[in-house]
Write a structure and sequence with these properties.
The complex is a heterodimer.
Chain A lengths: L8 H4 L7 H43 L1 H10 L1 E7 L6 E2 L5 E13 L7 H11 L4 H13 L6 E4 L4 H9 L7 E10 L7 H4 L2 E2 L19 E2 L2 H5 L1 H5 L3 E7 L5 E8 L7 E3 L3 H10 L4 E7 L5 E6 L14 H9 L8 H4 L9 H10 L9 E3 L2 E4 L2 E4 L7 E3 L1 H7 L2 H11 L1 H10 L21 H6 L6 H7 L10 H13 L8 E4 L2 E2 L15 H16 L18 E7 L6 H5 L14 E8 L6 E7 L5 H20 L14
Parallel strand pairs in A: 2-10
Antiparallel strand pairs in A: 1-8, 2-3, 3-4, 3-5, 6-7, 8-9, 10-17, 11-12, 11-21, 13-16, 14-15, 17-18, 19-20, 20-21
Helix pairs in contact in A: 10-22, 13-15, 13-16, 14-20, 15-18
Chain B lengths: L3 H12 L1 H8 L2 H22 L2 H24 L2 H6 L1 H18 L1 E3 L2 E7 L2 E3 L1 H17 L4 H4 L2 H20 L3 H18 L3 H20 L3 H11 L8 H15 L10 H4 L11 H34 L3 H25 L17 H19 L11
Antiparallel strand pairs in B: 1-2, 2-3
The chains are: A alpha+beta, B mainly alpha.
Chain lengths: 639, 382
């Protein structure tokens, strides 16, 4: 430590084996290199600071005046222009979801000193409830301050006049005309077209459009499925506004892209006629067998989608959701039913496909089939005698199809059903459509229960675990009639351009031998048109050609032996215990064009309740579509 | 090499005592930092419309940071050099942790919650990288710096954190980290032509990398090139920031009078766009003064580097200076619309605890270099 001073040691006093001179030289060299480079780095950085300074000089001094006018006296305000929402048109080009003008009062928070005071003054002119005020204040907080919030919609002329007169006392309030959704057909197409509602927090997907006041998003049906297409893209204006918010001039304008019109395949007039024909608890689906287009799809009861526009009241909502007839639910896509005898074609085809029967093979029906000590009854207690496939369909003999199911096995029946669109996703444009259920042995075993032969037999006549929608049954019928794997769909054209799937050739063949399909169609023809058929009530008036079809009725409650012995009559049961009535059919039988499925809840008999509805529906279809012919031609719907 | 002499040296240094070391702390620099932080206080007061919610917190954080900084400044630089590796490894570990368990923001994993603090390991990593590189290069001779094999490990030391930060994915911070690394390499004496080769490589690779960028990152680049193309989305920030800056003019609109900021045209005015707020309210004069203060901080870093007698301290100081510079440059260039928006705060001025702490940690290291500028390290080796 003695004689040691700071600053000396680096130069002189290293210890160790190395030559002190070499160490010092190396150190100096290293230091020299570092000094040069550090100076370069430092100077470079100072130079870049200079660049920032010059940049600031240009922005703040040279261009300062320009920006000053933009910001100080006339603040630039960017506003979105909401594009008109695309319309929904029916098959004939009639607007079924359109827009109408809506005068409303808006509040721009940045243009008032005190939002609360402005609202206070406003409510003295047009009364606001506490709820409304809470909503407005919430919207103001949530949005950017230049995005207007809606104070009141659907203003009357009197209210507007009063607001205009008091404008000086209402800073930040402006009157504006927006659009609101209008469904001219009201409840007739509600289940298909759906409805719109203000976006919720979770809908905010980053699209600035959703921040606009009065914007609506599709909540159900076509409105929801095609929401992005219908919505369009927001335009923008940059406005110069003075301190009180008066627009001085428009700086820049970018037009938005209006939403595209969507044309659906349903015919509104037909739909209306059909809905007039059916009662509560009934659903009908009419489909073009050649391309899967849905011509009509009715479910009773329904609701008025216009109500959603202004917001549904709690009382209205409770009424809808508590109503046992479920008006909000489209029974055609969400009602699940056992198909009953309408399913017998699937069993027959499965048996033919498995080569466990030939069309000519006969089965004797004594009125029941015994398995162990269980007896399975035919609906005809007296028995049908000896039947081949065609006559078994015509008479809807249960014993014949018990036998077919026994021979084919449940999994072959399930496989055949899937080819016909049963129990699979049909991928239709109606969000929430139920897939239904077609049981297999594995499905049952996955529940930890065994699959018994008795189960197979019951499923041979479409009873048991099956859960199918009327839409699925219509799809099955269309595929039977066309032999093609047509998918049900509603979209016909978007923005005036036809979508794929309009031509029959767009759909692949099912790969079922034509001979088998023909046999089924022939059996179905006999059901409606031959003496002894179960569906003669569905026979079309002569000029419309012949319909082929199949009836069905399914118990919703087990009928016990005692009940049978005491003389069970469905008509005497309480309504909700009566069996459902079903019918599927297509016409014309020799050149199939339209398939129809009908489910009448608690209608007791397919023949009495469902078949006449199918008949009337098809008559209506032929009457209507002669005016607007079907097929690939799509009307240019844009104005 | 570790003879009695060295031990004696260490003993002697310790013997100088804490008080004497405190006397050696460059209090003028501390005062400079206080001035910068005071600017931050004023700006945050304006951004928050009062001392709450930002300004008071800012002052408290800075106070805590000062204590941290001075404490680190008293630690012997050789101890820091010895544990540089630990710091580097710790930084890497945190980066890995944030990838596995971090919180997601704007589609990226960036921070970890440690109690009330949100730690952004990528911020810390930049300091630790400088520390690690300085430790690696401290004893390398000029000849050794020419040996390409000797440069492979430090290159990996840079690429590893850069890769991890890219993975977050945080392109801006990854680039800054890479540039900080390059700065230390340059200061350490890596030959010029090697930089030329890498620059050429980057020029070739950039278009390929562009294909792999996230949509939001590409959007930043395209809106940078033409901000008006998206006046309501990503371009909104840049347009509004430029209007605010420009309208400030020479003398500004006055404290609390910035219309753009106070009417909320200006986004994130307490963090990324704080400089815009200052420039709007205090004008070109105010903005250039703040820029000048920040430049002084950088200059001080380099002054410490040049004054230092050991390579470790020189590299550390130069690296920390470069890091601080890049922070400031990227932020101010961003708000003036000179480079794409990158989400980089302005150190010591923006609201945010994590950035403040890491900045002060770095300056603590810088103070240690200054206080121990004459400390003894072993000689350079080949």
């Amino acid at each position: 430590m003695i004689g040691f001073r700071r600053g000396e040691h680096a130069a002189g006093s290293r210890v160790g084996g190395m030559g002190a001179k070499g160490v010092r030289k190396e150190e100096e060299r290293r230091r020299g290199v570092f000094t040069r480079r550090a100076l370069l780095l430092g100077l470079g950085q100072v130079g870049l600071f200079g660049f920032l300074g010059s940049r600031l000089y240009r922005l703040q001094s040279e261009d300062g005046e320009r920006y000053k006018t933009l910001a100080e006296e006339n603040r630039v305000s960017a506003r979105l222009i909401s594009p008109p929402r695309g319309r929904v048109l029916d098959r004939a080009g009639t607007v079924v979801a359109g827009n109408r003008l809506n005068w409303r009062a808006l509040l721009v928070a940045e243009q008032t000193q005190d939002v609360g005071a402005t609202l206070e003054t406003f409510s003295r002119i047009v009364p606001l409830t506490d709820q409304e005020r809470a909503r407005i204040e919430r919207e103001v907080r949530r949005r950017r301050r230049f995005v207007p919030a809606i104070v009141r919609e659907f203003l009357s002329w009197e209210d507007m006049a009063r607001i205009e007169v008091n404008a000086p006392d209402l800073p930040g309030i402006l009157i504006d005309v927006g659009t609101t959704r209008l469904y001219p057909e009201a409840e007739h197409l509600a289940h298909l077209v759906g409805y719109v509602a203000p976006p919720a927090e979770r809908d905010m997907d980053g699209d600035p459009l959703l921040e606009l006041p009065g914007i609506r998003v599709g909540r159900a049906g076509i409105e929801r499925h095609h929401d992005l297409l219908l919505r369009g893209r927001a335009g923008a204006v940059q406005l110069e506004v003075n301190a009180v918010g008066r627009v001085i001039r428009e700086l820049d304008r970018r037009e938005g892209v209006p939403g595209q019109d969507v044309q659906i395949s349903v015919d509104a007039e037909l739909q209306k006629a059909l809905r007039g024909r059916i009662e509560e608890g009934t659903s009908v689906v009419v489909m073009d067998v050649r391309n899967g287009e849905l011509i009509a799809m009715a479910s009773q009861p329904s609701f008025d989608p216009n109500v959603f526009n202004a917001g549904v009241s709690g009382a209205q909502w409770r009424e809808w959701t508590r109503n046992r007839a479920t008006p909000l639910i489209n029974k055609a896509t969400n009602g699940l039913y056992a198909p009953g005898s309408t399913f017998k074609m699937m069993v027959g085809l499965a048996a033919l496909d498995a080569r466990v029967v030939t069309p000519a093979d006969r089965v004797f029906c004594p009125g029941h089939m015994d398995l162990g000590d269980t007896r399975f009854h035919c609906w005809n207690r007296n028995g049908h005698g000896s039947l081949d496939m065609r006559s078994a369909i015509k008479a809807s003999c249960d014993v014949y199809f018990y036998e077919m199911a026994k021979r084919a096995g449940i999994n072959r029946i399930a496989a055949m059903s899937k080819r016909f669109g049963l129990g699979v996703d049909l991928d239709i444009e109606l969000p929430g459509t139920r897939r239904g259920l077609v049981p297999t042995r594995e499905w049952r075993e996955a529940q930890g229960k065994p699959w018994n032969l008795g189960d197979t037999i019951v499923h041979g006549i479409g009873q048991g675990f099956y859960q199918l929608t009327p839409l699925a049954l219509a799809t099955m019928t269309a595929r039977l009639a066309s032999g093609r794997a047509v998918q049900p769909h509603l979209t016909r054209a978007i923005g005036g351009r036809a979508v794929r799937g309009v031509r029959a050739e767009d759909w692949p063949s099912l790969g079922i031998p034509e001979r088998d399909l023909k046999l089924m169609r022939d059996g179905m023809w006999a059901v409606v048109n031959e003496d002894g058929g179960t569906g003669k009530t569905g026979k079309l008036p002569g000029q419309y050609g012949a319909m082929a079809g199949k009836t069905g009725s399914v118990q919703v409650r087990r009928v016990t032996r005692e009940q049978r012995e005491r003389g069970y009559k469905a008509e005497n049961q309480p309504r909700e215990w009566r069996p459902h009535a079903l019918f599927v059919g297509f016409a014309p039988a020799d050149n199939p064009q339209y398939a129809v499925s009908v489910v009448v809840e608690h209608g007791i008999s397919g023949s009495a309740a469902a078949a006449p509805i199918a008949r009337d529906a098809l008559v209506e279809v032929f009457n209507r579509l002669r005016v607007t012919p079907p097929g690939p031609r799509v009307a240019d719907v844009r104005p | 090499m570790s003879g009695a002499y060295e031990r004696r040296l260490l003993t002697r240094d310790r013997g100088t005592g804490v008080l004497q070391k405190l006397w050696q702390i460059p209090w003028s620099f501390v005062l400079l930092l206080c001035a910068v932080a005071a600017v931050g206080y004023v700006a945050l007061y304006s951004a928050g419309g009062g001392a709450e919610p930002y300004a008071t917190k800012h002052a408290l954080r800075f106070g805590f940071g000062l204590v941290l900084m001075v404490s680190i400044g008293l630690v012997d630089i050789r101890v820091i050099a010895r544990f540089a590796w630990v710091g580097y490894a710790g930084g890497i570990a945190l980066l890995v942790l944030v990838l596995l368990h971090g919180n997601v923001g704007k589609g990226a994993q960036r921070w970890i919650d440690i109690g009330p603090l949100q730690l952004q390991p990528s911020e810390l990593m930049k300091i630790m990288l400088v520390l690690g590189l300085a430790a690696w290069f401290q004893r390398a001779s000029w000849e050794r710096m020419g040996n390409i094999l000797f440069l492979v490990p430090p290159a990996l030391m840079v690429l590893l954190p850069v890769g991890l930060i890219l993975k977050q994915p945080n392109l801006g911070t990854a680039l800054i980290t890479g540039m900080v690394g390059a700065g230390v390499f340059f200061a350490a004496g890596v030959r010029w032509w090697k930089f030329a080769i890498i620059a050429a490589g980057v020029a070739v690779a950039a278009p390929i990398a562009y294909d792999h960028l996230h949509d939001y990152q590409r959007a930043r680049i395209t809106t940078f090139l033409d901000p008006e193309s998206d006046p309501l989305g990503a371009g909104y920030n840049i347009i509004q920031s430029k209007i605010a800056l420009g309208s400030g003019g020479l003398w500004g609109k006055g404290f609390l009078q910035g219309t753009q900021g106070h009417l909320n045209f200006l986004p994130e005015k307490q963090t990324d766009f704080i400089f815009t707020m200052i420039a709007e309210e205090f004008g070109l004069v105010g903005a250039l003064s703040v820029l000048g203060l920040l430049a002084l901080v950088v200059v001080f870093c380099f002054a410490v580097a040049l004054r230092c007698r050991h390579q470790f301290g020189r590299l550390l100081a130069a690296g920390l200076g470069t890091n601080f510079f890049l922070y400031v440059f990227v932020n101010v260039a961003m708000v003036t619309g000179s480079i794409p928006v990158g989400g980089v705060p302005l150190p010591l001025i923006s609201h945010g605890g994590s950035a403040m702490l890491t900045t002060m940690l770095g300056f603590g290291l810088l103070l240690s270099v200054f206080v121990h500028r004459d400390a003894e390290f072993g000689p350079a080796r080949d």
